[in-house]
Every structure is written in structure tokens, then in C-alpha cells.
């Protein structure tokens, strides 16, 4: 299959690599060209090559994947002057892995439809490690037929690829995921900091309570690193703030109430002020510890 | 072993039953005597019997367990006029399964010591089902020697019995557990209600995200019942409010900050006003749904 991949960040770089390793004919584009050159050096043996613009990358492709920063970056690589929509042949399927708004997904879905193409919003979870190991979870929104054609291709870097519903549903599902995580991490932070203030051996306590009703992926995987004050890894505060902004905007539209999520968003703003922008999201506990 | 069990509520009734079934010589006391009579009818074949007061139940016992409502109930059955401390022989070990304050645990630990006895705070998690199946998690605080002697006895109804630290540490660990759960349940409620407002098929969404970083015992076990609006079971809002009160009091003493926990405590107060006092704690989502 001829596939273009737009955006070689910490996620896109290994994802495009998995496509090449699976035997697809991959052309990459990255805003900073040096990174695309590095990618070609690594994956050129599989036939991987680079293009100077998203438009050139997308020529004659069956599927065009993107994984960029936000709504504006996504519009630029898709419908901008040198965007992938420019020369795309009818029938091309655009698959967007950016965590973006549901409204930009629907806007690009409509723009693709007008050109006889397809657009699937397909945000991922699983982080950098999931991208590198090819075991991401991918939540998709869009037409069922286009999803069926794209699914075996993007499965190259996924453990699970699920169509949630119509255009935008993938992004909305990702928001559900982030809302679940944000409040959970604050609860875990309050619990651990409380135990520390109380003088408990928190390794023992977490070991005991992580077998019951308080247990979570975050407690099991981030509890130990929080106890060690290790935050220089993982999913950055800046990225979470971007994602929570999308959630709060969407809630303003659909009428949902997010009291704790909006509060935790403000706590992440505190962390940005405290110089923790690049720290993992579990750094919420920093605000709660004695200095 | 001669064991007394004080308080035959939804937890204590089956816990005392496991002790009798394991061959211990069990004497029970309950404020409402009819319940103790019912217990003797069920477990008399194992030699179980009842006493008219905590003091009489504790006569000649090696271990005196209690599982009552709160700090005041606990003081009444222990150090009250007819309390278990009255005739207790030196060396008696008191084991308290009530979720109570760390300060009442330390107070009774000291009172027991003055009589040549021992007091272990040993709150449980696992709920009514855990008590019935004898698979509770028990978090203990107190002297190591007394713990070692009590542990094989209370293991009759436990999957795990852990000494967390000195007197009060069991109660503090239970508070860490409840703080973790409260904020987590609110985050899960916001996530599900957001998805419902957005028109998503939340069964599909929860199925997808419960495999990754948002996953938790609550999402897996309470997510499906929340989607069905099933709340007439489980751990009641009134009980959680009592427990969060203990957490907030303790934090006021030890200097910990609990912004989301205190907010969720207020949301539970809303639920009490809404007539949901006896509903499961997952009923937090009721506040967030369109009426």
C-alpha cells in the first residue's frame, strides 16, 4: 500500500517506521526536514523516502496519515496551500492521529468528502512507548467503509483499533480517556501526599491498596515513580493542558459539567508556572508536598 | 482460640461467622440482640454463642474483635461502662475493624496498654462481598508482637493482612484508600457523563479505554453499572461521607491538602440531599446527568 506519513514527532517517527517495516511504500514529511532525513536513513532500506511538502508526500497515496501538534497544525498539513488535500486522488483516505478537536475532525471530514476522499479521526493512547513498540490503542471516527480499508494498515502500530462512531467520535473518546486520567491522577496525588504527611511507609500502603477498589493503571505504574519523585519522562504537563483545553471547550458546547477536570486543569497551570511543563502528568503531587 | 466479636452489621455478621467456621470459640455481642440471636441460630452448630454486653462477651477471651459504626460506638463497646475492657484479662488483644479516626485508635491503644492488653486498629477494604467471601484486605496498626498473634485469627476472613506501622497506621492507610477512590470516582463520572452528552456509545468507549492508562478497578466494575444507572448496591454514600470526614479531619491535623477530596465530599452531600444516601458511591454521576 502507498502510504504518506505527515509529522515525525516522538509518536509519528516510530509509527511511520512500523509502516515501512510492514512493507508499505512510505513517504514521510516533517516540518523540520532534518528529522525526515534521519528517518529515511533509518528506514530507507525498506524503501522509505521523504517529500518536501505534505502535498508532494500525498501524491498517488492510498492512505495519508498525520500526527501533528494541534488543530492549526492539522489544518496546515491537510488543507493549507501545500497541504495533502492539494493533489490527493479521489478515494484517498486521510487518517489523523493528532489529539485534536471533534470540530476540526468534522470540518476535514466534510472537506475530504467534497473531494471524493475520506477522513478518519484516529487519536491514540499508549504514549511514546506504545508508539515505539507498535501497541497503541486507536479510537476512530468516520465512515465504516473507509475505516475498514484503513484498519489493517494502521494496525501496524496498534494493539487495538476500534471505530467508536461517526466523524469526531474518535476525538471525543480520547477526551473521555483524558478526563478519566486527570482527576484520577489528582486523587492519587492527594492520597500519596496525605500518607506522606501522616508519616506512613507509602510503598507498603500502595502495595496493599493496589489490590482492591482503589487500584488503577496509574497507581500501579506511576505510584512508585511518584514516591521516588521521578517525573522526567512520560506524558508532559503541556500536552495534558492542551488536551484538557479540548475537553473543556467541547463540554462548553455539549453542556457537560466537568468540575474536577477544570480544577485539575488549573493545577496543571500551576505546574507550568512552577517550571514543570515537560514533567510527566503525575507531577501533580509536587503541588501537595511540603517544599 | 477464644474470640469475641462485637458488632454484627453487614460486615461483622459474616466475619464472625468465618471465625466460628474455622473452629474458634466465638461469643458475639450486638446492640440489637435479635441479630445476635439470628447469628447463634446460624453458627451455634460451631459452638457460637451470644453475650448480653461487650464486657460479658470479652470474659476469658484471647482476642476481642469489633466492627461498629464510628469513634463513639467504638468507645462505647470498648471503654464504656459495659465495655469489653471491663473484665478483659491481661494479654487480651483487641482488634478493631471499624473505619475510625487514627486518634481514637491511639487513645484505645494507650488505654489497653495501661491494662496490660493490646489494641490493633485493623480497618478493612473489600466491602460486604469481601466479608461474605472471607477475602477482605486488612490494614493494621499496632505492636508487632500483638499483630503476629492476631494475624492468623483474623486471616479467617481476609485475603491479605498487613501491618502498616504503629497504632493508627491502619486507619491512616484506609484513609489513603478512600481518598484515592473518591476523586477517581468523580473523574470517572465526569468522563462518562461527558461521553453521554457527546452522544457516544459509552459501552464501546469504556471497553476500549479500560485497557490503557485510564483503567481502574472502578472503571471495570462500576463503569457498566453506572451506564445502567444501577446504584442500589455496594458502598453507600453515607458511609463514604463518614470516611471522608475522617480524612479531612486528619488532613487538618497533619497539614495535607485535599482540594479534590473536599470537593467530592461536598458532591456526596448533594447526593444526600437528593435522596441518594443509601446508593453506591458511583452515584456521583447522577449529579452530572441531564435530569
TrEMBL record, chains A, B:
<feature type="active site">
    <location>
        <position position="174"/>
    </location>
</feature>
<dbReference type="GO" id="GO:0050661">
    <property type="term" value="F:NADP binding"/>
</dbReference>
<dbReference type="InterPro" id="IPR015815">
    <property type="entry name" value="HIBADH-related"/>
</dbReference>
<dbReference type="InterPro" id="IPR029154">
    <property type="entry name" value="HIBADH-like_NADP-bd"/>
</dbReference>
<dbReference type="InterPro" id="IPR008927">
    <property type="entry name" value="6-PGluconate_DH-like_C_sf"/>
</dbReference>
<feature type="domain" description="3-hydroxyisobutyrate dehydrogenase-like NAD-binding">
    <location>
        <begin position="168"/>
        <end position="287"/>
    </location>
</feature>
<keyword id="KW-0614">Plasmid</keyword>
<dbReference type="GO" id="GO:0008442">
    <property type="term" value="F:3-hydroxyisobutyrate dehydrogenase activity"/>
</dbReference>
<keyword id="KW-0520">NAD</keyword>
<dbReference type="GO" id="GO:0016054">
    <property type="term" value="P:organic acid catabolic process"/>
</dbReference>
<protein>
    <submittedName>
        <fullName>NADP oxidoreductase, coenzyme F420-dependent:6-phosphogluconate dehydrogenase, NAD-binding</fullName>
        <ecNumber>1.1.1.31</ecNumber>
    </submittedName>
</protein>
<keyword id="KW-0560">Oxidoreductase</keyword>
<dbReference type="InterPro" id="IPR013328">
    <property type="entry name" value="6PGD_dom2"/>
</dbReference>
<dbReference type="InterPro" id="IPR006115">
    <property type="entry name" value="6PGDH_NADP-bd"/>
</dbReference>
<comment type="similarity">
    <text>Belongs to the HIBADH-related family.</text>
</comment>
<feature type="domain" description="6-phosphogluconate dehydrogenase NADP-binding">
    <location>
        <begin position="2"/>
        <end position="165"/>
    </location>
</feature>
<dbReference type="GO" id="GO:0051287">
    <property type="term" value="F:NAD binding"/>
</dbReference>
<dbReference type="InterPro" id="IPR002204">
    <property type="entry name" value="3-OH-isobutyrate_DH-rel_CS"/>
</dbReference>
<dbReference type="Pfam" id="PF03446">
    <property type="entry name" value="NAD_binding_2"/>
</dbReference>
<dbReference type="InterPro" id="IPR036291">
    <property type="entry name" value="NAD(P)-bd_dom_sf"/>
</dbReference>
<dbReference type="Pfam" id="PF14833">
    <property type="entry name" value="NAD_binding_11"/>
</dbReference>
